[in-house]
Amino acid sequence: MLVKVNLLTLENRQVLLQNAKYAIHLACAFSKLAEANLLTRDNRQALLQNPEHSSGLADAFVALVKADLQEHRQALLQNAKYAVSLANGLVKLAKAGLLTAENRQALLQNSKHADSLANGFTILVNVDLLNPENHLTMLRNAEHASSLTSALEVLAKANLLNAYNYRALLQNPERADGLTVGLKMLMRSRFHTQQNLDTLLQCSKYHGRLAPALMRLAKTELLSSDNREVLLQNAPHSYDLANAFSMLNSAQLLTLDHRQVLLQNVQHLYSLSVSLYILTNAGLLNHENLQILLDNISSISGIQRYLEIFNPVTQQNIENLVACRHQLSDFFEKLQENPKANPRELVQDFRVHVTKSAGCSF
User: Which DSSP letter does residue 299 get?
Assistant: First the structure.
């Protein structure tokens, strides 16, 4: 590393030996400064006084010089641990014309989050939202600055960054990452409306499930105000609920009674959705077969695996499911006791057992 820039002198070798624990950091830092023609005695001394953070300091020194901001060098030394974040933040504020004494002090007091805060200030000023109140709320939530900035960036790209949404975002800053993920999903499918954003903002978490649920219902023209409320009330299960609604609607089976059964059994929605999907692909999702699933919903996880074993299923498979449900319960229990077991390894014994005990042909 030092050889490449002709720095392997006796003096440097002694310095590295004296700082053996941080020798790699220092060697890297010396090389960076030498390549930028910044390995002055003062800079070298600064690195030796902060060997643990020397590599970051070198990057920060270079960044300030490139941006003609050398007057802030002392600030980096006072915040050596977060020198890179601070330098990047100062450079970004300078480029945006925001490097005032007030903003400089704000970054110095929050050096760990300086880069993210600078990003946030820049995004807000671009949409004319960087007023004293919003400036203060960003600083008060500095520990969440990285997550908030990501959310602000996505909101801006979606043309949804306004005073109302900013305030709503700051009500749950610790959930900003989840909101960002959810909004990105909506943007990919062009469903990033204010109404959908409002739905996400009302949910303290589960954005990663709620967003695709909104998309699923929107695509099948089921995204009514009632269904939005249902998704919010059942946010942990919202995606499976949306899938079930959509599949039943496509089969003209989404009655009020069926809807009520689903809402009363949200803990079983995943297995029910998988089962509905298998029946749909087999062209067997009708009223009679749906009723079989709903009548046995307490055993739906076992039924799901049964259908997966015989996928693609036949009507005979379903009739056997009903005729042999008592014998099947033992099999379901085995599957539930061994959820990671490959059901196909058990299916032969299962077929022999049920055929002998119930006369069913599988």
Answer: G
